[in-house]
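Hi support team,

I'm filing this because I wasn't sure whether my run with calcium ion finished correctly. The job status page said complete, but I'd like someone to confirm that the output block is well-formed before I use it downstream. Pasting the exact inputs I used:
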Amino acid sequence: MTHRILIIEDNQIALRTMKAFLENDGYIIETAVDGETGYDLVKRGRYDLILLDLGLPGIDGTEFLSLLRCDCVIPVIVVSAKGSDIEKVVAFNLGADDYVVKPASPIELSARIRAVLRRGQAEVHSTRWLRIGSIVVNLRQREAFHRGIRLNLTVREFDIFRLFVTHPGVVYDKTEVFRLIWEEGTEYDEAVVSVHISRLRKKLVFDDVPPIITTVWGIGYKFDGTAIPIDHPDA
Ligand code: CA
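And here is everything the job wrote out:
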């Protein structure tokens, strides 16, 4: 099977170099030179992997990752000149699968790509279902169950729920929740986010489930628990 890779990189020379040697490796390569174009391509196309530069015009690499990870499990390898531990931790927290510091040797990049593609195949299957205590979530069908009983979540509530449980430990403030969940162009309204989060929390109160969305005072909210990928709801 030929894998399709999307490279998002604004440096034309780096882009052409990577494209050439990866095509030589047998991959189908598409490219974007900014985050917006990359995101549009992801929404319309089918890719097995994304190589992502962090310093991009417009939506930068970290913003691209947060947007992508709302509803997408395509493996991402960050390829960045920024090589500090903090930058790596931020990228991994946002859902990057691997991190390669530029300039990356073609041999190293190829090896990392193969490793992530192998891992990615296992992951796509396991992230269909998540278990959080006695709550089970079907990410593809967009349903959550508590002890077999379907939770009555609105579309928006499910989106918020999914954002938190798929990003354990990541703190989002209200503006970020809004930007990631609501349609582009919608005017920001803090009260709307508060109301949704409070309604969602009420629907998630169970004796045997720890709080899903905890308040980080003065900053925002986070999911402090663990979501375990499972193959099947009965697992
Ligand atoms: Ca760049």
